[in-house]
Please model this.
Amino acid sequence: MDEAVGVNADPDMPSDSEGRSSRWRNWTGFWLLGLCNNFAYVVMLSAAHDILKQQGSHNSTSPTPSTVALDVEGGKGSHYDCSPVSTAAVLLADILPTLLIKFSAPFFIHKLPYGFRVLVCVATAITSFLLVSFSSTVWISILGVIFASVSAGLGELSFLSLTVFFSRDVLGGWGSGTGGAGVAGALLYSALTQAGLSPRNTLLIMLVVPVAMVISYFFLLVFPPSFPQWKCREVESVRGGDSQNRRPLLDDTDEEEEREKGAEEDKVTGPLTFIEKRHIIKGLLRFVVPLGVVYFAEYFINQGLLELLYFPNFYLSHAEQYRWYQTLYQVGVLVSRSSLCCVKFRRIWALSLLQCVNAVLLLLSVYYQFLPSAWLVFVIVLYEGLLGGAAYVNTFYFISKETGDRQREFAMAAASVGDSLGIAISGLTAFPVHRYFCSL
Model:
């Protein structure tokens, strides 16, 4: 490829070559890609309680001191209704492969054409649903969750990089779609299982989602003429038309150096060097660290605390309360990830602070049990989702806006590690917390 036509050199406004119909198709296409990419991931987290409960009961032939202490149904031997294995186990299986991909792939993923990446995402998502549906042990289910993680991680990294070939408004479609995946996945799983469908049949029905991803990518998106669908993208050409409107990611250079750098940037072609990638990553830390803190706090809540926030006198069972916690969280994510067209918020650190307040509040509520009703937890979880979704979509919007054309594709891929790193740390933290409370 001699020239990267389609890289969003003026991403705030759609390019002249994109008609209204093409812009609508691309926005819708990215919305559906976000929905399909995150669907399996969300469903696995929503099904975490059922996976552990169902297969824990299948695998236990006689009670032991440890299983009695952590009995699923009655919480015998503990003040809390605990699963034999924390739902954080499902979270770790759902995020660690994603984290590994996001840490390593930005340095070599450009050698794998986008078309092949999408096919890998589809194949691993289908494998995930089939493994979890037909598994007879917890560990086979965990393997299925790992395949879902591979699909979501590779997909998120690839589709965020893909946005640089289109006008910047597709980021709003992607963000809204990923939020929609949360609501659709959690709500559909909750509704179908509560209606009497088994978790196995529910997961089999959701095999339609990977098929929808293929249709959205190959038949809905309108690609630029020179887009490298089945070829490696080794050479990058740059147009620096928006360099005056960018806030540089790196702060350790003065304005004169930045101007000289911008002038040189217009002429530079070729792939980024390893040293250049290191400098880009350094500049991304101001976005990646606050995003990671937001996701650490919210997934510490979701997979470490919500399982323990059980209200026996409420009209919903423990499993149903857990499912609706997850559903309301995803509703909040959907609303805030769809808000980019209305409001933009650059101070991601403020959102991380507020999310940490939520985590401390709910941790104290688990220990002291002072919250009177599940209704109040529903409100807090909805608010938690609003904070998390806003942090995600605004982080990638401002990275796209403030990164040079030549660096943008790599920067979008590399920054995607922020939320996954926070989620992974929260999963590791949730294990001892779960063990501690279940021992009380």
